[in-house]
Design goal:
This protein is mainly alpha-helical. The chain has nine helices and no strands. The chain is elongated and about 50 Å long. The relative contact order is 0.19.
Length: 144
């Protein structure tokens, strides 16, 4: 299971002075307003945030819908924009992998890769025992 002490340490790491929490919150409000103008309901906006997660992908989705692009083209554009997260994932996984942790944590954690959460991890991972870093990462991802 998840080590709750380490998870909450990651969850509350977003409250630090150098955290992008306020900027992220404001950006998601702005994306929400843009999606509302495109015609999304609040439920659709929240669902798209869970599916896309990264703000540039949400922006591409909204702009593509405004100009009337096909669903296949929107999918490809969002996929290509979010492919920029792959190098971050590759550089981060060696810091997180521990043989003592179940694989489901790693599969779940893939959805939390973003520049903001990556920066928080990179500045704090040395303080966390390697065995529990995935729990710390899940906390960061939940917070962001």
């Amino acid at each position: 299971m998840i080590n709750t002490k380490i998870f909450f340490k990651g969850l509350f790491s977003i409250k630090s002075f150098d955290s992008p929490g306020i900027a992220l919150g404001a950006s998601f409000v702005a994306i929400g307003a843009l999606l509302k103008n495109v015609g999304f309901t609040i439920e659709e906006s929240i669902f798209s945030s869970f599916l896309i997660y990264a703000l540039p992908g949400s922006l591409v989705l909204a702009e593509s819908m405004i100009i009337g692009v096909s669903l296949l083209n929107i999918f490809l554009a969002v996929w290509l924009v979010n492919a920029r997260l792959y190098p971050m994932t590759v550089s981060m996984m060696p810091l997180l992998i521990s043989r003592n942790q179940p694989r489901w944590k790693y599969y779940l954690s893939c959805h939390f890769v973003a520049v903001s959460s990556w920066l928080i991890l990179k500045s704090n991972y040395k303080k966390i025992d390697k065995k529990y870093r995935i729990d710390f990462w899940l906390g960061i991802g939940t917070a962001t």
